[in-house]
Amino acid sequence: MVNTLPKPGIKTPSKETVLTPRFYTTDFEKAANLDLSCQDTELQAMLAEMRADYNRHHFVRDEAFEQSWEHIEGEARQAFIDYLERSCISEFSGFLLFKELSRKLKNRSPLLAEMFQLMARDEARHAGFLNKAMGDFKLSLDLATVTKTRTYTFFPIEWVLYTVYLSEKIGYWRYIIIYRHLEKHPENQFYPIFRYFESWCQDENRHGDIFKALLRSQPQLWKTWKAKLWSRFFLLSVFATHTMTVHERSGFYKTLGLDATEFDRQVVYNTNETAGRAFPVMLDTEHPQFFPRLQRCAAYNLQIAEIERSSQPKFIKLMRKLPLITAIIWNLLLLYLIKPIDAEALRETVR
Ligand SMILES: [Fe+2]
Ligand SMILES: [Fe+2]
Questions:
Q1: Which of 53, 92, 338, 350 gets the most CB atoms within 10 Å of its CB?
Q2: Distance 166 CA to ligand 1 centre (A)
Q3: How many domains does the chain have?
Q4: How close is the Cα of 192 to the center of ligand 1, in Å?
Q5: Closest Cα partner for 60 from 125, 131, 124, 121?
Q6: Distances (CA, A) of 28 to 34, 112, 321
Q7: Which residues lie closer than 8 Å to 8 by C-beta, 6 or more apart?
Q8: Residue 25: phi, psi to the nearest 5?
């Protein structure tokens, strides 16, 4: 039985919603049987890079952390803690999935098993570093309990390849855009963790490249019409989730001197461009309706959150939320139907 009473200083994880980072499990048997032969050279090169462990000494807290953070107060404090928690959970979710994959593939696919073990090593560092940052705010997540109490979503290995690829690449862009912004505006650097983002995001970039090689080793994941439909679906769901969460946390981006809408636009635009190197299609982010519709979804989502916070009876809340949920689904459907860009054709021309 898991103890539900939080200990002092241990943060109860925020309620799970459609937007909170999820924990995944997959078909390990199918993962073990993946034929990786056509990407073998790439994967061997990446394995060597992962073994080299360039960030071995990076995640060490320096003296800049050794001070009181009580001056970060009120909404800014809450917004930052939420940011740290969400980031920590999503890094930790990556750790658990990679660790499990590595364990299950150990005797079946040694190359993959080692790759996943090394990626789990990185994600554990990332999650640990974030959790120590939460400690500076006198809170920390009890990750062992989180592991036991969260629900695990089953994803077929194909979906894992699409979604983890995207989450690594979107992670890269989120970290690097914040880092570059703070390089230009050091006055907004209110806490030292952001200084670590440059090398940190290189880890995510490497993980993304490994997933790209895995994806490209499976022709059915990019050669078929089905693959195109799935790619569109996953691109859109990752972008919609990003847009909605960034707008929910606009307060945090404001403390960094970033405009949430502009930050989100940059992250989505760049991740989509990057994804064109692995996926058969990219979304048409320059379509005049693309960002306006995504932003409309974020605005409806904020209204839903507002209703959630009210003390009205559940049924009334549901009635008020229903038209907003419908509007979000409708906008997402219209976004999905925007003609995508054929990345395979683009690749041919570049060659
Ligand atoms: Fe990470
Ligand atoms: Fe990663």
A1: 92
A2: 13
A3: 2
A4: 18
A5: 125
A6: 10, 12, 38
A7: none
A8: -135, 160
Gap from CA of 12 to ligand 1 centroid (Å): 22
Do residue 98 and residue 195 come from a single domain? yes
- Matching residue, tokens 């390089």: 183
| Triad 182, 185, 188: Cα angle to 5° | 75
Q: In this predicted structure, what is the pLDDT of residue 88?
A: 95
End-to-end CA distance of the chain: 59
DSSP secondary structure code for residue 320 in this structure: H
What residues sit around ligand 1, an ion, with C-beta below 5 angstroms? 91, 123, 126
Q: Are residues 235 and 155 in the same domain?
A: no
pLDDT at 290 over 70: yes
Closest CA to 233 of 155, 163, 316: 163
d(CA 228, CA 220): 10
In this model, does residue 327 exceed pLDDT 60? yes
The pLDDT, as a whole number, for residue 11 is 78
CA of 41 to the centre of ligand 1 (A): 24
Ion ligand 2 — residues with CB under 5 Å?
Answer: 168, 204, 207
Instruction: Give the angle subtended at the CA of 35 by the CAs of 30 and 39, to the nearest 5°.
Output: 130
Same-domain check for residues 159 and 232: no
Residues present in the chain in total: 351
Number of neighbours of residue 237 by Cβ within 10 angstroms: 15
CB of 79 closer than 8 Å to CB of 252? yes
Amino acid making up residue 336: Y
pLDDT tens for 211-268 read: 999 999 999 999 999 999 999 999 999 999 999 999 999 999 999 999 999 999 999 9
Is the model's pTM score more than 0.90?
yes
Q: Is 161 in contact with 236 (CB distance < 8 Å)?
A: no
195 shares a domain with 61: yes
**Domain of 66?**
18-221
Instruction: Give the CA distances from residue 188 to residues 192, 261, 265, in Å, rounded to whole numbers and listed in that order.
Output: 11, 18, 20
Q: Is residue 198 part of a domain?
A: yes
184 & 273 share domain: no
**Positive/negative CA dihedral, 101, 213, 280, 277:** positive
